Amino acid sequence: MKYFRVHIAVGFIAAAALVAVALLDVRTGRSQSKSKESTNKPAAEKGAESRVKPTVLVRDRRVEADTKDVSTSSTFGSAATRNALLSSELSWTFGNKQERGWYLYTPLIKRLLNIDTKHDTKYNIGTEQFASALSRWQAKSGLKPTGVLDEDTLYAMIATWQGARLKDRVYPQPGQLLTAPVSDFYDPTRADELRQVERETYAAYKRMVSAAVADRSLGLARAAHGELAPGEKYLKIVSAFRSREYQEKLRRESPNSGSAGLAVNSPHFTGRALDLYVGGDPVDTGDSNRAIQVQTRVYQWLVRNAERFGFRPYCYEPWHWEYVR
Ligand SMILES: [Zn+2]
Question: Contact at 8 Å (CB) between 125 and 33?
């Protein structure tokens, strides 16, 4: 009898424990899928959502079924770890140049994934949120939605950026160029013939700079009428229109700049490409210099806002912006 009672008691405790585990699982499972839903939102794209959903559903089911360790069960956990590594280690080439990692492109990548770089630190490279946002972009772009920023994904991103650049590279008629005041330039001694800019590009540049100056979070020095102060270096023009002759001279002076450097058919011939000061050494493609530039508030502001004014980036050179309207 005594033995029987103990048996019942043990059985009762075991049943209660099972119910408790089941309840706990349902609750964590639900909150997990709910938080997933909200983190999906910022980068949600119409086309991508339906294609990504199966992955999310599979993962949620797995989380619900797994009673042992809810916190580490995630489709994008390993992708996040992989991204943290690849951001500095991925081996790839740009033109003829051997490159290592994609960390220099983080602001542009986040922009592509619709991640608000100003406010969303939870979307940093090594997070599941980043991997999840990336997987949606991959799905939309016809890539396998792994959430891992591998070589194929990086090349697809570069193709997207390159495809958005200035297509029409016609030489301007003399009347299409104006000579901008020296106060707009990084080098206050720059000669007249090197300060020519295509008219519409210049007007758009001035509108963009006004908006940047008005954004007090950038801390740009302002002059009396709200324009960029003469002593402010940020956003000043380093280089604008270049004649073919001048470009040839530059190429002769640095013969090793290669295809990623001084192009034979430069967009600067159009007068619609501007090199703007975004920090560091103005136009040095070295990784350490570009690492400084892509972290400046001004560069990140351009990544977020330049498109509104008609300017698009050249991913490889943080300072180079093209007016595409
Ligand atoms: Zn340039």
Answer: no
